[in-house]
Amino acid sequence: MGKVKELAKDEDIDLEIKQFSDYNVPNKALSDGDIDMNAFQHFAFLNEYKKAHKDADISAVSTTVLAPLGIYSDDIKDIKKVKNGAKVIVAK
């Protein structure tokens, strides 16, 4: 995030970055006016949030890169070793 802040400063933008550990909090913070924008979600997540929170007057104004996303395991070292029927958790 330091690089993002540095690039923003080059454009005369004073950027304050807040980090959240719960995916539901940034949209509430945006709706409540605690932050001016967020960049963390895909369109499906935003649409589901808006269905569940009808009073949330927020919308997508651009796209962003979602990172870090990856496949992690303590035991499996090669994706080819994942067996049919294995339990996999996918973020909303």
UniProtKB/TrEMBL annotation:
How is the protein disposed in the membrane? Lipid-anchor
Q: Is GTP-binding included in the keywords of this UniProt record?
A: no
Please state where this protein is localized: Membrane
Q: Kindly state one GO CC term assigned in the UniProt record.
A: membrane
The region annotated as signal peptide is none
Please, which domain of life does this record's source organism belong to? Bacteria
Q: Which UniProt keywords apply?
A: Lipoprotein, Membrane, Palmitate, Signal
Family stated for the protein in its record: Belongs to the NlpA lipoprotein family.
Protein's name according to its UniProt entry? Lactococcal lipoprotein
Source organism per entry reads Staphylococcus gallinarum
What lineage is on file?
Answer: Bacteria, Bacillati, Bacillota, Bacilli, Bacillales
